Amino acid sequence: MGDTTPFDEMYNADGSVREPYSALAQWLDEQPDRGLSLMSSDAEAIFRRLGITFAVYGSDEGNEKLIPFDVIPRIISAMEWRRLSRGIEQRVRALNAFLYDIYHRQEIIKAGRIPEKLILQNSAFCPEMMGLEPARGVYAHIIGVDIVRTGPDDFYVLEDNLRTPSGVSYMLEDREAMMQLAPDLFQRCKVAPVENYPENLRRTLESVAPHNTSGSPTIAVLTPGIYNSAYFEHSFLADQMGAQLCEGPDLFVDGGRVYMRTTTGPERVDVIYRRIDDDYIDPLTFRPDSMLGVPGLFDAYRAGNVTLVNAPGTGIADDKAVYTYVPEIVEFYLGEKALLNNVPTHNCVDSDERAWVFDNLQDLVVKEVHGSGGYGMLIGPTSSKALREEFKKRIEARPDNYIVQPTLALSTCPTFVRSGIAPRHVDLRPYVLIGDEVRITPGGLTRVALKKGSLVVNSSQGGGTKDTWVLEE
Amino acid sequence: MRIAIRHELAITPPEGATNAVMHLLLTPQSGPTQTVESWSVSTTGIGNAARFSDAFGNTVHLVNQARPDGEWKVSVTGVVNTIDRHGVLGRSHHGEPVPTIYKRATVLTKSPVTMWSKFRGSSESRLDVLHGLMARVGEVLGDGEGGQEQSQSEGRQSQSQGGESETANMVDLTHAFVGAARALDIPARYVTGYVAASEDNEASFHAWAEAYDDHLGWIGFDCLLQMCPAERHVRLAVGLDAVSTQPIRAVPEGDGLKQIAVSVEMAQ
Amino acid sequence: MRMLGRTAQHLFWLSRYVERAENMARLLDVGYRMSLTARREGGASEHMLSMMQAAEVEEAFAAKYDQADLDSVVHFMMFDPDNPSSVFSCLLAARTNARSVRTAITLDMWESLNSAWLTFSQIKPRDVKGAKLLGVLQWVKQLSHEFRGALLGTKLRDDGYCFSQVGNFIERADNTARILDMKYYVLLPRAKMIGGDLDIQQWTLILRAASAHRSYRHVYHDRYKAHNIADFLILRPEMPRSLVYCAQMIEETLGGLTKLYGAKQECHEAAAELAAMVANNSMDKIFADGLHDFLTEFLARNYRVTETLSDSYNFY
């Protein structure tokens, strides 16, 4: 993980092509001049036509942006994927077992394997969830695991997203676009399909319907509305699943059950895939000022009359401070070693550790415990001295608000940029569905930092996406 | 002691609300210190209400009313037999969460260091520490004997005002105790209930605290009355603080909760 | 899958706003043309004011401007976000409604609106003058036609279609009735049988505002006459902007909802009451009872259709 040349997913150090990329390399060679450039503009036209946009917070309404799409796919071999998906499955099972325990007997705290204070005083811990029995014992049904690669066999989990992970619509649309743009390339490679994600999502949601559901469960996607940055995804998923896209005021609670207002009267709702944060889902139990939620929704959930996906309070398992304990969590609940590594993480609460962090800040990454989207982050190697001093002050003031990690040399992948094909850093977010079984879509969303040398892949900060191929044997 | 309770409360949802919902924490449960002989909650929509247990083991009613019109009243009546166990409830029961979650600090239960620092690292037993803490909270925040006499002598006109400030004081005292205990790493919870009249107090809707001792289990501490709840106390609901134990939460809540009447009487 | 009340509401208003954008463009076009030929001092601003009266925005205008000069009126009617019926506001509202029901409209409908909005946002208000203004107004009318074409050509004939269509015709009926009401006095029967120049000018304004100045000739083969003009815009079923045509379409479309949902609602009664005003009626009778009163009552009944529709199908 030092400052050596980052691992390139396509080319070996000697310039030869790595096996999974051989067909792609050949195909790239065959492309005429300007071929990729034409494909890029075709891709943009496809996305604009579909209206796949995201709103950047703070920008004007109506000023929606396209996330740049890179026409060169990122390829993962069958063997690599097998290893990765085993590790992911282990991790999401352990995290759900952890959530069950934390909201019941809290054995892991009693056993002294995780500090009591870290859980009980954590704002992501939701005491209202204590003792609740979710359908099939599942709390986090939809998880996005952020993974980075630093070498041929070195994968690290950067973050687990157990609240409302977004981006899956880009995974699906990227594939759709890629098949339109380069059908011939698909003929040469056996690529595992991702298209059944909406169907799998539907099955997962149906499998966790409350016991008293009669007939086939009615599913609703609950969105904060058109001004949310992920609104496109909400409407896309509802459409693809054949579920109703609802806003808070479309739903109401009557007799402890949830209904939607339709043109022909109330219709019972059994499962709600909510894309609204915990705090806002129900003004009766959580933030009373929320206009986005449904009054009484949480009580209806506690009464066992509706399933919320994901359950409230899952954030305690993806909290950046709890993250450090995930290997411990895997061992405690599954009795086996974690297959996927965590990035070594330091806290700043301990004064010795803090001193070491301050001495090495230029090589480290500092993250806010509750930050997301790449905001509030310090990337040591590319930071100014002034910014580092600023962060020292912030850490000094609230040491428990930050975690520190080494700067990982994220792997690179050939990417089509203005100057031609050049290596750019990438990460990977596979999507996992957990209901009657664990379903992992092969691949996931590859995010790519389009700026040369940049390690920030977030779309809000100039990142793009790539179609991600898992090869079948 | 056989205690008969009548309690009337109301909210007035704003005009034009399409659906109003209420979360009622107004149903006591039988336990080591009390047996519920009879109990009924009546209000518009109660027949259609969802009844379930919340995270703290309380019985909740979720009631709703489409297009509410004017005041929405809730009346509670019942008879509870209490047993004096000097405030000791014992270990948690089925349906209650692990006691440690009652170490979670909330916005309302922040207690100043000066309230509890002298008990930190104390060699006394936890029970003694808790009694000491109840006394300390009473000294720092309570009205004291004189204060109460004064408010009684002020006569009837100021009675309702006196009642309100007394309620506020009771809530503050209980939060202070709960917060201080948690700061000392002792699980402590907020309890609502009723107290029958005595020489020192009128019958009222009441609040006190309970703290956890590894040997004795949960023990009640009434900081306002400076006593461990005995047979005049009827437990209604428990939670992290006054907000999580509110007898009625409502959306939309209009002008807020109104206490109309409460009577707590010894029954034959 | 059953339709959310909110979805029905968005579809209804989406159509109404597209239709309104078109009507606003047409009114502004007429107002502008008339003001160019006004001979009297202050005549130009008078035309502009009565045009805004028909658009029912004159109060909002007066609250913001002292004088109805051309530039202010054009800006107010085209680009002003404070005017809830400006072309800008209509297109924004249409697109916002469309975004909320993206999955309930077809890709063609979405694309026509989306590209219209993107184009409109590129227009710089200060460039829109003279011939350019007429060009832009023409474009606004066309985008409405394009959207309607996409709706008619691609939308499933389901409940969503019905809500879209009802919205369209309620808005149109409202607009036609207002145009008539703005100048109802020039249509009243008078002793003098032949209209003077001023009358002809006013009549042209009415017909143009309803896109009826050419088709009038096809129907009546006659010069402009007040009686005919009123008849054309109120009682002629072949005229697609007439009150009778709109009322029939509203009733028919709501009939479609009865078929789909299997029940009649309060709004069906309201629509029948609206249609009853214009079915089997004659201009002589309407004039005898009072044209202004008739129009006022028509507008009220038309409003009641919207109101009962919201109740019947759980809009909120």
TrEMBL record, chain A:
Residue ranges annotated for the Circularly permuted ATP-grasp type domain, each copy included: 73-449
Pfam families in alphabetical order: CP_ATPgrasp_2 (PF14403)
Name by which UniProt lists this protein: Circularly permuted type 2 ATP-grasp protein
Organism: Devosia rhodophyticola
Automatic annotation (TrEMBL), chain B:
Top-level taxon of the source organism: Bacteria
InterPro entries, per database record: Bac_transglu_N, Papain-like_cys_pep_sf, Transglutaminase-like
Biased composition (Low complexity): 148-166
Region described as Disordered: spans on this chain: 141-166
SUPFAM superfamilies, alphabetized: Cysteine proteinases
Domain Transglutaminase-like per the UniProt entry, residue ranges: 162-225
PANTHER family on file: BLR5614 PROTEIN-RELATED (PTHR33490), SLL1049 PROTEIN (PTHR33490:SF6)
Protein name: Transglutaminase family protein
Species of the source: Devosia rhodophyticola
